[in-house]
Amino acid sequence: MPSSNSWLARHKEGAWYSLVAIVLVVVFCGGITAGVNFAGHDAFAEADARLDESKGGAQRALLFPDATSFEQVSAPAIEGLNSVYQTNDGAWVFDCSATGYHGDVELMVGIGTDGTVAGIQIVTEDETDGIGTNALTEDYFGTFAELPATGTLTVEEAGSGETHVDGVSGATFTSNAVIGCLNIAFEAYAQLGGN
């Protein structure tokens, strides 16, 4: 069998041949990945939005289990306010974010038709287990139940228009995030005509 003197045959065992082969495979695979991403971008985004909505819907239902529907309403331009929903009977759900110790703490704050806090649900958080998370418990959230959704909450000495509330010892940043979310919800509630 005659030997081939082509460049490819002479360098088949060399590093350049391997490098060219690897580059061609990477470019080919990258092209396929990019094509699939481009073709499915809208479908992926829609699926992500549906998943986010279904998770949020479940949390809203935990705040108001008797509600038959939740309608998203136009949210006031308040820093930290992510979205606002109203139930079929007029209660409100405010999705708010405030800075905790390890980043944003996102909570849903329910305000009932009587203008008081109906409940709080955690959306996302990355606080320290056993320390910051001590301010993200049902016990702590329960201290705000039936609190009028007016004015401003503070852990400091209350001034005019402020209400003093207790933080959780050792979880100052997270307590402040919870109180911050409540204050955002109260402000939005007032701008939407509540109390």
Automatic annotation (TrEMBL):
Membrane-spanning ranges: 15-40
Keywords per UniProt: Electron transport, Flavoprotein, FMN, Membrane, Phosphoprotein, Transmembrane, Transmembrane helix, Transport
Superkingdom of the organism of origin: Bacteria
Name of a matching Pfam family: FMN_bind
Domain FMN-binding: 100-189
InterPro entries from the UniProt entry: FMN-bd (IPR007329), Ion_transpt_RnfG/RsxG (IPR010209)
Keyword Flavoprotein: yes
PANTHER family assigned: ION-TRANSLOCATING OXIDOREDUCTASE COMPLEX SUBUNIT G (PTHR36118)
Descriptive protein name: FMN-binding protein
Provenance organism: Collinsella ihumii
